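Dear all,

This email documents one entry for the complex benchmark we are building for the journal club exercise. For each entry we list the sequence lines for every component of the assembly. Then comes the predicted three-dimensional structure of the complex as a token string, followed by one or two observations. Please use this as the template for your own entries, and keep the labels exactly as they appear.
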Amino acid sequence: MTKIEIHVIGKPHSRYIIEGINQYKKWLSSSFETRIKYYPLKNYRNLAPENIKEKEADLYLKNINESEEIFVLHERGKEFTSVEFNRKINDIFNNGKSKIIFLIGGPYGLSSRILEKSWCKLSLSKMTFTHEMSVLLLLEQLYRSYTIDIGKKYHF
Amino acid sequence: MTKIEIHVIGKPHSRYIIEGINQYKKWLSSSFETRIKYYPLKNYRNLAPENIKEKEADLYLKNINESEEIFVLHERGKEFTSVEFNRKINDIFNNGKSKIIFLIGGPYGLSSRILEKSWCKLSLSKMTFTHEMSVLLLLEQLYRSYTIDIGKKYHF
């Protein structure tokens, strides 16, 4: 089974977001093996933002296999329509990859060590949303992608 | 107090969305008087999509005062950053308007009678989200706009 991994700095704390994430993880379970890896925020509070971003980059780079297909969520990244996103996901899996990794940065953004990689930068919206909302939106789009594949009605 | 009205076809049904909407309505209560007007979906199921859109347009036009400031959520509308959206909202209220109305269409989209108006078309994302998610995202951006105004930290 194809795998989706979402790596994110900081756990969601709003109850409604946690509930929404759980709903989509359940709905996705027949199409992808979905794993969300949350990295702690709490150890870095006394560091300068630049240093925090480097600590976070260390965590990402230690925990991901760079030979996998990686997307970095970024506010100035490429915007896809849901249909284009579906096509992109399918192209990756059809080209022999079995896992896609999404990285969602912390409150100070991402280290240049991450941004300099050739990984696709993906923007969910020109608007800024909370990071926990980004996890939810990303799962929603992955579920929407699955419904496009199977022709399931899921509009409203 | 300035007023925000959101007119939307169909009630939200996911529990987590209802909870999120209630959270943001509560958080917004010190800055805007927020009212969400849900129109029923159920009466139109046997009609053709084109006729449903006209029925919905009748409802909107009957229930809104066209002299108010009106935004229409539309997938090919203008995308704002959160800061641009904040500026737009403030410009409207600073120019003497006391109410902003947002229209969110039904599953078949909006009648040309609505789209032909000179009202601002607003897109939250190139991606398609459920309509109930659009209500939540819109409230989140209105709350974010308020936090920008008061300089409150609300990033994560």
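Observations: Chain B touches chain A through 33 residues (CB under 8 Å). The radius of gyration of chain B is 15 Å.
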